[in-house]
Structures are given as structure tokens and as C-alpha cells.
């Protein structure tokens, strides 16, 4: 797996990086936003892609 497609997903509530994922940067130009479970908040929160 290549490292250039690796992205970090940060919780929008507590601002902690809790997930890592891959994305195709040629097809998805904008930042990814997913609703994931945050272990620190202990609930489902929106997670945004960070640099």
C-alpha cells in the first residue's frame, strides 16, 4: 500500500485523530467527511479528513 493515499480522520468534536484510511486522490478532490464512532467521545460524530 502506498503512503501517499493515506489520510487521517479527525473527530470534529474532540479534535483527536482516531482513524486512518485510504482514498483515491485523482477521483476525490474534496475532503472526505464520514460519521464514525469516536472512542474518546463515546458516540458517533462526524470525522473530517486532515492533512
From TrEMBL:
GO terms for biological process: translation. Keywords: Ribonucleoprotein, Ribosomal protein. Gene3D superfamilies: Ribosomal protein L33. GO terms for cellular component: cytoplasm; ribonucleoprotein complex; ribosome. It comes from the Bacteria. GO terms for molecular function: structural constituent of ribosome. SUPFAM superfamilies: Zn-binding ribosomal proteins. The keyword Ribonucleoprotein applies. It holds the Pfam family Ribosomal_L33. Belongs to the bacterial ribosomal protein bL33 family. HAMAP family: Ribosomal_bL33. This is Large ribosomal subunit protein bL33.
